[in-house]
Structures are given as structure tokens and as C-alpha cells.
Amino acid sequence: MLPILGAVANFALSLSLRLRLTIRLLFPRKCNAFPGIQTLEVPVFVINLAKRPDRLREVTENLVGIGFSDVRVFEAIDGPKKYPGLVRGHSANLGCTESHMRVISDNLKKGLPIAVCEDDNEFLASPKEVHDLIREFLDSPHFDVLGLSTRSRGPKVKVSPDLDLVSWAMAPSFYIAKPRSRRQLMAAYHKSVSRLKAERRHGPFDQVWKTTQRLRLFFVRPTARVARQRESFSDIQGKFYAGT
What we know:
This protein is an alpha+beta fold.
């Protein structure tokens, strides 16, 4: 019975994505397209704990190798240090969520998309492949967030040969957000912070923003794998992480 219910739910979700996409295609928002912005000039904000210069060095080398010309460092909020009374998993995720929230609130302004990059992100694709994906995203008025590193769960809809519209993008170590997405992203971050402070389940923001993707914003990701989270010691998990 459960597999049948799951299949029905996925069918309904897929249908909902297609319906929302059809409406967006019929009524495009021209202000949501940025054809005049050079792809690799999009500001990249690297979230990095001050105690992890090793990660900062590796991710910066990788970003420069791809060709990003505007790489900025945001000193990550140390969750366990700020919230010593919480279970480590919650406090570490709180630091991560608050860091993403600060980057978006302080820097995602009208007229300019930005990229948010965690310090364990690693691009696997060529500079041209990354450039082409960002170009397609920026030129389209239909999509709000591009997750170049994300994994996806649930139904997805192919919107071009290289991009899928997803219903749940997870592990966002590198994503580009357009200004239109700011309000809904901030709402998801605030909800995540509230859940994590209360030590409730499903608190990390990449779980909370599932609803945002299914009802409010359009998240796309590459059909092929172009980036991943690098193997390293994870300050959130407090142990070595094998990467994605």
C-alpha cells in the first residue's frame, strides 16, 4: 500500500511542477532574466570558518581555476561556539543556516544575482560547461535558483537538455540565487533557525526549503554532475566526511 501511495504522491507533485512551469512560461517575469551579466563575474561568497584555512585555500583555487573573477569570503558563524547548550548537530547546522542567511540578506540586492559557496565545494566540470550552465540560467526569466552542486530527491522535470526543474534540492554547497528569490529564501532560513533552536527534526535549511521549491520558487540543477562536496573533516558532523 505504501509504495502505491508514494507513487501517487510523486505523480501529483510532478503534475504540480509541470502546471506551475506552464504558468511561468505563459507569464514570464522579464526582471528575472540577466542577459547582460557575464557568467563568471557573478559575485561568489565563500562561507568559511576562520579555523579552516585549508578549506579556504582549496575552494579558492578551484573557483579561480573555473574562472570566477569576484570571489569574496564570508566568515562562517561557529554554531557550537555560539550555541553551546544545544546538541552539536543542531548547533552546527544553526551556524551553517545563519551563515547562508547572512550572505543572502546582506548581499542579494535588486539587479544582481549572487553565488553562495560552502568551503568544501569542488567543481568537477570544465570552465566552459560551468559557464554554459550559468549562462542558460541567467538568460532565462523562468528560473530562480541554480544549484550546481545539489543532489535531488523526488520528481523532477527536464526543462532543457542540460537542466532539470527539481522538487527537492539537497546539499547546496554551491548555488546561484536571483534577487526575486530573496524573500522566500529568507523565510526558509528563518524557519530553519527556529526549528534548530527548538531541536526539532528536519531543521537544516535544505530540508526546510523543500516546501519553498515545491510551492514558491523554481530550483534547477544540471542533468549531469558538475560539482560535489569534497572529502574532508566536517565541522558540522564532527567527523571525516566522505563527500558527495
